[in-house]
Amino acid sequence: MTADVIIVGGAVMGSSIAWWLTKMQPGLDVLVLERDPSYTQASTALSVASIRSQFTTAVNVRISRFGIDFIRNFDERLGGLGQVSSLGLKENGYLFLSSTPEGAAALAEVAAMQRSEGAATELWSPDQVKARFPWLETGDLTAATFGPRDEGWFDNMGLMAGFRNAAKAQGARFLTARACGLRVEGGRVTGVEIEPKDGGRALVACSAVVNAAGTRAAEVLSWAGLDLAVEPRKRTVFVIDAPNARHPDAPLLVDAGFYLRPEHEHWITATVPQDDGPCDSNDFEPDLHLFEEVIWEQLYARAPGFDAVKVVRHWVGHYAYNRLDQNAILGPHPDLPNLYLCNGFSGHGLQQAPAVGRSLAEHILTGGWQSLDLSDLSVERMLKGAAFREQAIV
Ligand SMILES: Cc1cc2nc3c(=O)[nH]c(=O)nc-3n(C[C@H](O)[C@H](O)[C@H](O)COP(=O)(O)OP(=O)(O)OC[C@H]3O[C@@H](n4cnc5c(N)ncnc54)[C@H](O)[C@@H]3O)c2cc1C
């Protein structure tokens, strides 16, 4: 077996890259390897599926500005090949809160940067928060930022399925197989070893490889003797019923110790565990105590309507966490220039799939960044330890 480009990982990133590659160069032989087509452990399937312009690094604002337009017009952008008529985008906005003077100054600074990138971010006083969302307690606040458009949530599986369907329609091949090794010769990757689902082992020769293996990205690089500071970090997400808090126009609220957004008649909420650290890729045991012990008290203090709350469901997903700076790691690896990384999204990768897929496809086909300059997110910065930090990690 051979392929021009092999993509390891067939969730949202792998599918997006496959679609962009086959759109830009019809006839290119793209092979996507996916170990688990049920996607039960993929971050894509376990995502909270939201998009915002409110990032602290300009490149992430640009990536999301492209993403929101793509998500809004998904069917049309895929030329009808995605077989997904709409991603059900709900544009309720994000509301970031601050309770300290330093936090207020930081929000003002990043809001100005976001606006200079075309975002609609508004800087609000506590009174403005109260006027718009009277069910929130605002006495302790110093400032807030709100995105009145281009922010909200959408159908995560629809995004992935649309890209995959459209990529297949353009000739990309999706194979259920686990990649288990890289063949390296003369400073280049010349093939990927695979374990197909019906057993055995095979080598697929190729001209380029993309690592889109999510939380398992470091394992892929280890096959070539290379390190990557990306690890799985567990996030337990709670779906709660709060009969005294019905606010369908609520934004995605980012408070000091938790985030919250409506989901149909319920709410979704989560927090970062205090002892946050790496977990095993197969560890999906929920941290159930986090709702009662960490989230609920803070949630009730912010919104007293959450006095009666029942957890109706929970799930566990893993962030592919970039230990250096919590930003994506994109582009060719300097030690193996035909091995492309698409890793380390640290909890904000779903919304980045349209723009990142386009940019990586352009890089693979032309040898450089084209529509968007993503060099801030290069592999080189990781090798130098030169952090390019995203502060707005939720
Ligand atoms: C709880 C939670 C909430 C989130 N909320 C948001 C949000 O609101 N907004 C947002 O933008 N992002 C969010 N994210 C992050 C987002 O979901 C991810 O960044 C994004 O889905 C990453 O996509 P991916 O394709 O890179 O990785 P994944 O979805 O993890 O896919 C990687 C794929 O690679 C496959 N694979 C791995 N190793 C191999 C191998 N050796 N051979 C073959 N296949 C392999 C896996 O089976 C998997 O299907 C959230 C994530 C979590 C966990």
Name its key features:
17 strands, D-Amino Acid Oxidase, Chain A, domain 2, alpha/beta, FAD/NAD(P)-binding domain, binds flavin-adenine dinucleotide, 10 helices, 5-stranded mixed β-barrel, 394 residues
**Poorly predicted parts:** none
Give the class-level CATH name of the largest domain. Alpha Beta
The CATH superfamily label of the largest domain reads FAD/NAD(P)-binding domain
Instruction: Count the DSSP helices.
Output: 10
Quick one: overall form?
Answer: globular
Total DSSP E strands: 17
Order of helices and strands: EHEEHHEHEHEEHEEEHEEEEHEEEHH
Please state roughly what percent of the residues sit in beta strands, choosing from under 5%, 5-15%, 15-25%, 25-35%, 35-45% or over 45%.
25-35%
Structural class: alpha/beta
Largest sheet descriptor: 8 strands, mixed
Mean pLDDT: 98
Oligomer: single chain
Task: Describe it.
The protein is of the alpha/beta class. The chain has two domains: 2-81 and 155-229 and 324-384, FAD/NAD(P)-binding domain; 94-152 and 231-317, D-Amino Acid Oxidase, Chain A, domain 2 (2-Layer Sandwich), CATH 3.30.9.10. It contains ten helices and 17 strands. The chain has helices spanning 12-24, 58-72, 74-77, 101-116, 126-132, 156-169, 217-222, 289-302, 353-366, 379-384, and strands at 2-8, 30-34, 50-51, 94-98, 122-124, 143-146, 152-153, 173-185, 188-196, 202-211, 230-241, 252-254, 259-263, 266-270, 310-322, 329-333, 336-343. Strands 5-6-4-12-13-14-11-15 form an eight-stranded mixed sheet, with helices on both faces. A five-stranded mixed β-barrel has the order 1-2-8-9-10. The chain has a two-stranded antiparallel ribbon with strand order 3-7. The longest helix has 16 residues, at 101-116. The chain is globular and about 65 Å long. The structure holds flavin-adenine dinucleotide. Flavin-adenine dinucleotide (FAD) is lined by residues 8-14, 33-36, 39, 42-44, 46-50, 178-179, 212-216, 235, 237, 317-319, 345, 347-351.
